[in-house]
Automatic annotation (TrEMBL):
Entry's Gene Ontology cellular component terms: cytoplasm
Keywords, in A-Z order: ATP-binding, Cytoplasm, Kinase, Nucleotide-binding, Transferase
Enzyme Commission code(s) on record: 2.7.4.25
UniProt name for this protein: Cytidylate kinase
Top EC category: transferase
Pfam families reported in the protein's UniProt record: Cytidylate_kin (PF02224)
Binding locations of ATP: 20-28
Length: 244
């Protein structure tokens, strides 16, 4: 994934858009579903996180929209992310930031960067180009505004949800050893901040809701894969049923 072009290209492969709140399982479930289907996997939140990392690294004030936007040329020239779901790496400015962009501190700061309109416009152009290119038969992209802004014309659009208490429990389990109250606050506060910019709670018209509150990870992956196969007419081997 490299520098952005200016126009939004049409998609020549199956694109699946997945949105939802923090901790709903977007990245883990979408990644596994993409692996099963032989699709690419695009974690759009990773780009916002990597840009935040770059801003912190350069020592800029993340509340200064002009300073954040000024990072975009370097970011676009150096940002790289794995698209194969079995791989997991993110680079920016020549640095492997795969782990660094997942810290609690960075999660706390990312919403300030994600609310800058110039940032959103630039990243969205890049996401669309990546989704349109790629040689896998399809791609699953997940984030907050993929069903509504990045790829409103995607073949399948899913809002992955779960009750807030369940999402907090999942995040707390992942961050065993960290203060549970702080984990809960970070999930709620980030969602509240992000919701001021995009709506990822109410499904837009045509978006299917997948509620994982009472499903385990395996069941949620199965439900997502089933939904995609049904909508795209794919058989269990991932082949187009009309052509097989
Ligand atoms: N259906 C499920 N049942 C139980 N645990 C789940 C389920 N789906 C996801 N999880 C777990 O919940 C945690 C959060 O999932 P994940 O990181 O995929 O969420 P996310 O929506 O991408 O979050 P964020 O937007 O904050 O990055 C992970 O530990 C994941 O394994
Ligand atoms: N399409 C997107 C994706 C992400 N964001 C913002 C909101 C999140 O706080 C941050 C990190 O995303 P995550 O890795 O937690 O999915 O990026 C957004 O505004 N739009």
């Amino acid at each position: 994934m490299t520098a952005a072009s200016t126009e939004a290209p049409a998609f020549h492969r199956v694109v699946v858009a997945v949105d939802g709140p923090s901790g709903s399982g977007k990245s883990s479930v979408s990644r596994a579903a993409a692996e099963q289907l032989g699709f690419d996997f695009l974690d759009t939140g990773a780009a916002y996180r990597a840009l935040t990392w770059l801003g912190l690294e350069r020592g800029i004030d993340l509340d200064d929209a002009d300073a954040v936007a000024a990072l975009l040329p370097e970011f676009e020239a150096t940002y790289r992310i794995a698209l194969r779901p079995a791989e997991r790496w993110v680079y920016v400015a020549g640095t492997d930031v795969t782990e660094a962009i997942r810290t609690t501190e960075l999660s706390r700061r990312v919403s300030a960067v994600a609310r800058v309109p110039r940032v959103r416009e630039a990243l969205n152009r890049t996401f669309r180009r990546v989704l349109a290119e790629g040689d896998a038969p399809g791609a699953i992209a997940e984030g907050r505004d993929v069903t509504t802004v990045v790829a409103p014309d995607a073949a399948v659009r899913i809002l992955l949800t779960a009750d807030e208490s369940v999402r907090i429990e999942r995040r707390a389990a992942e961050r065993a050893g960290e203060d549970r109250v702080a984990v809960a606050a970070s999930v709620s506060q980030r969602d509240a901040a992000d919701r001021r910019v995009v709506d990822f709670i109410e499904p837009a018209p045509g978006v299917r809701v997948l509620d994982s509150t009472r499903l385990d990870v395996r069941q949620t992956i199965g439900a997502m894969v089933e939904l995609i196969r049904e909508r795209c007419g794919l058989d269990a081997a991932g082949t187009d049923e009309k052509e097989s």
